[in-house]
Amino acid sequence: MDNKPTFLWGVATSSYQIEGAVAEDGRSPSIWDTFSATPGTVLRGATGAVACDHYHRMPEDVALMAELGIDVYRFSIAWPRVQPGGSGPVNPAGIAFYDRLVDELLANDITPWVTLYHWDLPQELEDAGGWPNRDTAYRFADYAGLTYDALGDRVQQWTTMNEPWCSAMLGYVVGAHAPGRQDARAGMRAVHHLLLGHGLASQVIREKAAAQDRLDGLEVGITLNLGVATPASDSAEDKAAARWEDGLSNRLYLDPLLRGEYPADIATKVAELGSPLPVQDGDLAVIAQPVDVLGINYYSSRLVRSTPVGDNGWPTPEAVDRDVERTAMGWEVTPEALTDLLLRLEREYPGPDWYITENGAAYDDQPDANGYVDDTDRTNYLRSHIDAALAARAQGVNLKGYFAWSLMDNFEWAFGYDRRFGIVRVDYETQQRTPKRSARYYADRIAAHKANEAG
Ligand code: GBH
After folding, report:
1. Which PROSITE patterns is this protein grouped with (predicted)?
2. Beta-strand pair 293-297/353-358
């Protein structure tokens, strides 16, 4: 028997949320630089210009992870560092950072897990139309190839996209995220081109790995934000509202990826509403590349009821409050729904290795004079969700690992630095890192699980 652990424990971050150094070593602006510089978009006008200064403190941050005893680090690569402007040759100074990061992780016995796209699209590609423009999918595959060429000798875990729902819906429909557009038609075009980009990039990575005899151990996949939408009542209207929400946030991604077809109810309805999915011949076969790993980002679930359709004719399911705890984001704490979700995925979409690639919570941390945060709330959140995930695993779900979001407090998108998800506190004045109680809990839990597995 080899002694490879059967369950991997990790922490996750993303490039724009932690790196800072936005104008260094040839990085070009991303849509998040532009968006956050636009007044009224991000709380208190915050930007990722400095963030956690991880770009300059990377070895210290890797040492922190090593201390916590984590197996695997999920980070994202900034496309505008590696390929400024989103086209052309690789930028050696930009890729050098990730080259050093990967080496540092391996030297510390931590497996690197790369996400190629966590929302920092090169601004030049947005100027050319962004994700609603089909060409962006081909640009993405090109960038994936360049990155694989540079890191594929050491990195075997490749996630193409993080949460295409957020990119399409928050970026192009709702406008709460970069690039801040409010155009449903553009949003549905973005959905399809993000998925197409995933498929094309998966093909490129596998072809390159095959040519270099590196298929063994290679794991290619995608990460989705998934949740459970439960109807608030037995009425046909509320059931339809929950089904619509499930369709638009879960099935619209799961079905093409894992079944090779868009869910008919959603595809038909969005086309009727004037926002068709711009599918061309052969696209679905590209999108439905084998998914070795399906990453699940889980935060919360909702009870929903139907409301009258909006002006534009789109269904508008509405959340009904439950009498449960909420995090500082206002999201309900719903660990049991995570077990339900995992059981459903295994039942309805069997095949991939499932990983929880993000799970965590923002709370109103109160540091003591030393910067220590006694975050029993976040600790309880992690405990109950890890329990819920392992309960599903015990019932036969092929769940292979869990990542806490996030290693450290960071730029929380539209909420700037006002929401803290870290298990490590960051003092943004001194950049000092201080593990919170939740970090200690997580380290202990990992150690206990390993001891159990070994024995
Ligand atoms: C993730 O997005 C991101 O990948 C990460 O970068 C970010 O920092 C992190 O979450 C924390 O926000 O309506 O109450 O059911 C998560 C996005 C969060 C979107 C939960 C849907 C539903 C909340 N999702 N949300 S609720």
Report:
1. GLYCOSYL_HYDROL_F1_2 (PS00653)
2. parallel
Ligand 1 neighbour 405 (Cβ under 6 A): yes
Q: Which of 126, 163, 245, 332 is catalytic?
A: 163
Q: For this structure, is 358 an active site residue?
A: yes
Residue 1 forms part of a structural domain: no
Whether the CB of 115 sits within 6 Å of ligand 1: no
Mind listing the pLDDT tens digit of every residue in the chain (455 residues)?
445 678 999 999 999 999 999 999 999 999 999 999 999 999 999 999 999 999 999 999 999 999 999 999 999 999 999 999 999 999 999 999 999 999 999 999 999 999 999 999 999 999 999 999 999 999 999 999 999 999 999 999 999 999 999 999 999 999 999 999 999 999 999 999 999 999 999 999 999 999 999 999 999 999 999 999 999 999 999 999 999 999 999 999 999 999 999 999 999 999 999 999 999 999 999 999 999 999 999 999 999 999 999 888 999 999 999 999 999 999 999 999 999 999 999 999 999 999 999 999 999 999 999 999 999 999 999 999 999 999 999 999 999 999 999 999 999 999 999 999 999 999 999 999 999 999 999 999 999 999 998 86
Binding residues for substrate: 17, 118, 162, 299, 405, 412-413
* Cβ of 299 less than 6 Å from ligand 1: yes
For residue 25, report the distance from its CA to the centre of ligand 1, in Å: 31
Distance (Å, rounded) from C-alpha 172 to C-alpha 99? 33
Domain region containing 282: 8-454
Q: How many separate domains does the chain show?
A: 1
CATH of the domain at 288: 3.20.20.80
Residue 74 contacts residue 11 (beta carbons within 8 Å): yes
Domain-embedded: residue 144 = yes
Q: Could you write out the DSSP letters of every residue in 316-383?
A: --EE---SS-B-TTS-B--HHHHHHHHHHHHHHS-SSEEEEEE----------TTS----HHHHHHHH
Q: Is residue 2 part of a domain?
A: no
